[in-house]
Every structure is written in structure tokens, then in C-alpha cells.
Transcriptional regulator (Kytococcus sedentarius), 213 residues
Amino acid sequence: MNAPRRGPRPAGSDTRADILGAALELFSTHGYDAVSVRMIARQAGVDPALVNYYYGGKSALFVAAMRPTVDDELLAAFINGLQPETCGEELIAFVLGFWSRHDTAVRMTGTFVAAPSQQEEQEYLRHLIVERFLRPVVEKLSPDHHEVRTELAAVLLMGMMAGTSVLGLPRLDGLSVRDRARLLGPACQGFLVGELPTIGDDGGTSTERELPS
């Protein structure tokens, strides 16, 4: 870890960016609970009051530091180009590619798995995966049961990202993005556009009922 700055701040320094950079480093290294506003301020070389001034507090700063940014035009173009026959593999490849290009996304997933009680991170990841990546795909391509399909695919994507960034599974980590997409794509394809089974209160062997829409 870099040593905290000492002495006057250099001319032209960007206080907001310095605070954000310090927060990213500390949250990634120590986790949310172990990091205080004073630690962030000391690392950034600023008065603690400036952390609250620029970001409104630790929780808002955490989300700002850890959240990856999404290119809206790129995402829209990707979704518009998806076809039912290949959407599972292509979606997996897109999400894995996004995660591999955004180190903060990997760190954020790791912190979420290690500390799932962090509501700010949980809500942002849910929004990113469900609302940004999945819901538009399901609404475009899926024939029915949109909410259930969205949630099933979300479980798959979150497990995939956690396995990559947290569990360190060597055989999967050693595969290319495209190879992982080929392996996981059929499962995702089934959730998005495949025929879903009926379910029953005892696991599906009796009293069968339709999935909710």
C-alpha cells in the first residue's frame, strides 16, 4: 500500500479523485467495515470533513469507488444484436468480458460475497446484473415468465462471477472468456429462452403448478 501523503497538497491536485482513489485502495484491501472515513482522509491527504463534503459519507463513497461504469451505447447495441439461438453464450461472454475489463467489478463482487450485509453494494450489483444486463435481454427475447427467467439467469451470472473473482477455481480461471461462455452458455440459454418445467409444492412430483409470470 502506498504511504499516506504528508504536508501540503500539491498545486492542481484533484481532491475528489484523490479521495476516490484512496477509498478504492482501502476498501479493496481491508473491506468495508474495517475502513473509516479518517483512514480514507489520511490516505488521500485531506481533512476528513472533505470526504463527507464530496461524497456524503462512507457508504456513498464505497459505492462510488467500487462500482464499475457501463457504456450505455455499447450495452444497447449488444442487446439489440442478440438472437435467441445464441443469446446464452453471447450474454455470458459479454458479462465476463465486462468483468475482466473492470477490476473494480471483481473487487466489488469479492467484497459482496465476503460481506453480503453491505446493502449499498448489494443493491448496486442487483441493479447492474438484473436491471442493466438481464431484464432488457429477457424482455427482448424470452417468450414467457420474464421475472422468473431474469432471476434464474441472475443466479447463474452472480455464481459465475463469484467463482471467478472469489473462489479462484484454477481450471475455470485458466479458460478464455469465450471457452467459459461456451461451457456456461447452454445453461443461460435455457433460462432465457428455453422451455421451463412446471413445479410442485413438493419439488414437482405432484400437485404441479405453473411458474409465476
